Every structure is written in structure tokens, then in C-alpha cells.
Amino acid sequence: MNLRIVLSPTEARVVGCLIEKQVTTPDQYPLSLNALTNACNQKSNRDPLLALGEPEVQQLVDGLVRKHVVMERSGFGSRVPKYQHCYCNTEFSALKFTPQELAIVCELMLRGPQTPGELRTRAARMAGFADSAEVERILESLAGRAEGAIVQRLPRQPGRRESRYAHLLSGELAPELVSTSTERDAPRLPPTDDSRLARLETDVHALRAEIAELRSAFAAMRTP
Asked: Are 89 and 96 within 8 A, CB to CB?
């Protein structure tokens, strides 16, 4: 597979979902079209939220199959087609990630630009990290890959202590993401108590949603 295949944002969502489910719910992987559609439209761990129909997801899958990024791999006795990615870490791909790198890249594909602190919290369900500094070191390594950058650090937003990172698997970033005018012209103000509280509430909500998802997956695994 060409290491620099460019994915559209919705193709990246499909591939990110396949990577996520391969790691978090391996007993339910590969995914049927219905399961993949539900994964793309999840209300938790996704940004932006989507409402794709099965025909749309099937069209995306068919395009990814032609790009040799997804393959049909149904198990013995399966009545419906099931799909798995071959985008990275497979014999069909030259693109290799460590478990921690894979977790970070997957989260960026599913949720868009995030800070090292956000990634440490959200990617912990797929790999462990000692602290935000470790996440930042991994991000810088991904940004400096000899064969081509996988992520890019964005200008720090006003009122935020950390810069966000975005993946480059969908090609060049939008100009508004990489513009430095906002950071250069805006005053560097510390975050207010209200903004810190809002971020904490957002993180708590995200963690609750992830716990609910894991409980649901565990209950499904226990069902005969």
C-alpha cells in the first residue's frame, strides 16, 4: 500500500472506527456494515458527530477497498460481509505504528485536533501513557517521521496552555487551522476558572460516555 494514501475526512472516520474496534472490542472485529455504520455515528468519542446511512458507509467502504485500505474478511459461517482495515500494522501496509502511536493517531482520526493532555485521557482506553509529556514526545516523533509527517502541531489558541495536534492522513490542513495570526495578535491570557471548570466537565462527560460504551461492549461479550 502507498504509505501516503490520502483519506477524505469521512474515509478517515471509517478507518479510525475499524482501528478503534480492533483494539477495544477485538471479539467483535471485523465489523459488519451495520456495526461499522453505528461506530461512525457514535455519540461518544466522535467529533464531529455524523449521521451516515448504510448506503453512504457502503460507498465509503467500496472506495477504501479499491484503495487497498479496507478488505472484506468474513468469518466462518458468517451470514453478512464483514470488514477490516489494512491501513497500518498489517502485512499489506508499509505504515507501522507502536500501540501508543496507533492510539493517538486513531483518536485524532475520530475526534480531530487535540492537545497532549486531551489525548492522554482519551487514548488511554487503547494504550497506556505515563503523562502528557510522554504523549507530546510521541506526537513530535510522529511529526518528524523521515518518510513524511503523520501529525502537525497547530498554533496555540488564546487562553490555552497546550497546542493542539492534527493528523495529516487527509492531506494538507485547512488554512484556518495553521494560521498564526490569531496566536500572534491575541493577548496571552491565562485560562479562567470558568474555562477550567468547563474543560473538566467536558472530560468527565467524555469519561462517563467511554465507561458506558465499555460496559455495553462487555455485556455484549457475556451474552451467549
From this structure: yes
Q: Which residue, 94, 124, 139, sits at the end of a domain?
A: 94
Q: What is the residue range of 155's domain? A: 99-209
Please tell me whether residues 77 and 126 are part of one structural domain: no
Asked whether residue 26 falls in the same domain as residue 66, the answer is: yes
The residue among 17 and 216 whose pLDDT is bigger is 17
C-alpha count within 13 angstroms, C-beta hemisphere, residue 183: 14
Residue 109 grid cell: 482520526
Q: Which of the four pLDDT bands, split at 50, 70 and 90, describes residue 190?
A: low
Spatial neighbors of 186 by CB under 8 A, at least 6 apart, are 158
Q: How many CB atoms within 10 Å of residue 124?
A: 15
Amino acid in the structure at residue 108 = L
pLDDT in tens, 121-141: 999 999 999 999 999 999 999
Nearest to 99 by CA among 78, 137, 121, 125: 125
The reply to whether 138 falls in a domain is: yes
One domain for residues 20 and 79: yes
CA distance 88 to 193: 41
